[in-house]
Amino acid sequence: MTVPRDESPDQPLLGNDPGREAEFDAYAEQYDQLLNDSIRLSGERGEYFTDYKIRDLARLWQSLGRGRDRPHILDFGAGVGASIPLFQQHFPGAQLTCADVSARSLQLAERRFGSSASFVVCAGSTLPFADDCFDLAFAACVFHHIPPESHGGVLRELLRVLRPGGALMLYEHNAWNPVVVRVVRGCPFDERAILIPAPTLQRGLRTAGFANVVTTHRVFFPSPLRRLRWLEDWLGWLPLGAQYHVVGRKPVPTAGTATPPQS
After folding, report:
1. CA-to-CA distance for 193 and 93, rounded, in angstroms?
2. Inside any domain, residue 258
3. pTM of this structure
């Protein structure tokens, strides 16, 4: 079921520019093809990049000692739902909520995947979810579409809706990789993207109140060099990969300490 658009009068997630939402709606029908066209230099299709991201999220869940639990997951910026089959594969039985500013994208996702997830349109300044309701929050290549001045508010909202001890994983393109910069410049739906250096995003999570913030660099080897991909687990410190993820956790209040309000 698609929840109606949030009409909050405050600063919306994409800034004061309703044209951005219209852009995402316009590209929804062609999204998969445009994505595959833009990444053809890698020798891979979009499914490969989606799969390793969800695998990384599953490894994070395992590292929290919760591997056998069935988490409630927020896919923030879910688009047309390309990640849904991978969530089903790597998180069997999990409760999945897909959120996006593009109503058209979520309509297509719901048509393709039906009851596999809940679909929520959210374009206001606050996420239409209760406090402390998700175990994991995930956003794949979303924040470079959000104006930098809005990052802090969005991160605070993601912190608010996570349960204490829950984790956020943000995947982004590497702003220091010249091949990535070229690919992004050639992608129609990335026309107004602003790539984010990893240290900037890491600082943003800490400022928003996340703890245990860690950055890991990924995607070092294109398809012709795929035999070397086993090395990736040892290269996470090297800021040369095509993408990176930043992980932060919501602090668990200690006994007798109240959780500070999220603004």
Report:
1. 34
2. no
3. 0.84
